Amino acid sequence: MREPRSPRAEGAPMTPIVRAGHVWAVARIALGWVFLWAFLDKLLGLGFATPGERSWLNGGSPTTGFLKGAADGPLGGLYGALAGHWWVDVLFMAGLLGVGAALILGVGMRIAAGAGTVMLVMMWGAALPIATNPFLDDHLVYAIVLIGLAAGDAGDTWGLGRRWAEVTAGSPVLR
């Protein structure tokens, strides 16, 4: 069980650890918004990555375009076979919504980091070969940040992480 961190007393100086906690909180909320925005755009077809006529609500598949684009990569056969199946779409959209909401709220950080990392590594694999860098891209950087957010208890600052830890005490899976 983790040691509860006490909140900074009013008027106490901002220590480097407190400042770092604020930076991690901003990173957590920003990355949560990346996931949540992708969910909303694919669901509603807001015209950014997904045109309205290809939204999930209009019968479009949120996975087909990206996964079919992986056909030329080393994992193209695998991703092509997954593209457009209803269950893949449901899992993908649930992952975007769940990870995004968990990060923004600061709850379930370990679960969100695990699920988000799996999603991001799979998206990285679908993007191979990467045109701008032979190995590293934003998917892997985001996955590293997710792991850091969970390891650093980033949900405790400006989030519901402390309360979540109290409610889920004794459950290493839900933390």
UniProtKB/TrEMBL annotation:
Keywords: Membrane, Transmembrane, Transmembrane helix. The chain crosses the membrane at residues 21-40, 86-105, 112-131. This is DoxX family membrane protein. It comes from Herbidospora solisilvae.
